[in-house]
Amino acid sequence: MTECASTPPASDSLKQEELFPIREVSRVTGVHPVTLRAWERRYGLIQPTRTDSGHRLYSAADIESVRSILAWIERGVSVSKVGKILARSSAIKMPAPVYVEVTSSEWSEWQARIRTAVAAFDGAQLERLYGQVFSTYPLLVVFQDIFVPVWQELLLHRDEVGRSSEWLFLDAFLRARALQRLQLATTGRGDVLLAALPGHCRELELLVAGLLLGSAEIGVQVLALGQPLEELALVCEKIQPQALVLFSNQPPADALPAQLTRLALELHCPLLLAGDAADLIEDDLRGSPIACLGNEGRLMQQRLQQFLAGHLDT
């Protein structure tokens, strides 16, 4: 008998501790129990706790790890390399400030309500939820920890019937809100230019990166998706930003370090790299004039501020 079939229902005490049996993790993530066990045994990607009888129990953090693994695999990273990426991301993540230290269950509750509104294509309810979340949490939490994970989840399952339409509905909603926030935040300032490597991210990911990089001291101007890489030197010459940040959420090609180095030589401002690719290529760019900002909101903003202040080595 398989573990999925033999695991007893979670008791009230387990629910309070936010521990879930493997069948429930499989249901909410779409990952087969056999695959979950392989990720644990073969690659050490997740480490669930065990009951006295040996059944696996997963925390909310474990479920988020499963979703992160899926996201990396979706971007073309082999499962054998995901462990190193997750370990690095975990090591460099900054602790959240006290005012955003909320339990994952609170975020999960908001996400469940968002999923319900999206499934019903209820724009009015989604707008109300967006306003309520924004009045409760900082911008970074709103996008990075609550809304975007739902967007990513729908994106991963967009081949299922109805999911593609749901993703498009939420994607259009969030792009409009992120663009609105960017316009309010920049007010014409272009201290830093942000552009995507062609074909390396979706528009929402680029807009959210702009929101997370910006601050009261730094205005971020986001260039349109599809900006030609070969014309960036000309754009920077006219705008005269303090720095150009390239964004990529795709595994870097072998030729990318040389390509970035050539671009850096053409620019009259520093070149930085942000997004998932920054973590994957950081070792290859060490010692070059190109700085890597990472892919986590708090870290990206802090590293950008340090770089502009002359305190971040490349």
CATH architecture title of the largest domain:
3-Layer(aba) Sandwich
Average predicted confidence as pLDDT: 83
| Number of structural domains | 3
Helix content: 55-70%
Shape field:
globular
- SSE arrangement, N to C: HHEHHEEHHHHHHEHEHEHEHEH
Low-confidence stretches: 1-16, 92-102
Strand order across the biggest sheet? Answer: 5-4-6-7-8
| Radius of gyration of CA atoms, rounded to a whole number | 21 Å
Structural class: alpha/beta
- How many β-strand runs? 8
Helical segment count = 15
Quick overview:
The protein has about 325 residues and is an alpha/beta fold. It contains 15 helices and eight strands. The chain starts with a helix and ends in a 6-residue tail after the last helix.
3D architecture notes:
It is a single chain. By secondary structure, the chain is of the alpha/beta class. It folds into 3 domains: 83 residues, Multidrug-efflux Transporter Regulator, Chain: A, Domain 2, CATH 1.10.1660; 83 residues, Methyltransferase, Methionine Synthase (B12-binding Domains), Chain A, domain 1 (Orthogonal Bundle); 122 residues, Rossmann fold. It contains 15 helices and 8 strands. It has a 5-stranded parallel β-sheet, sandwiched between helices. It has a 3-stranded antiparallel β-sheet with strand order 1-3-2. Helix 7 packs antiparallel against helix 8, helix 7 crosses helix 9 and helix 10 runs parallel beside helix 11. The protein is globular, with a radius of gyration of 21 Å. The N terminus is likely disordered.
Q: What distinguishing features does this structure have?
A:
disordered N terminus; three-stranded antiparallel β-sheet; 15 helices; 8 strands; Rossmann fold; 3 domains; five-stranded parallel β-sheet; 314 residues; Methyltransferase, Methionine Synthase (B12-binding Domains), Chain A, domain 1; globular; alpha/beta; single chain; Multidrug-efflux Transporter Regulator, Chain: A, Domain 2
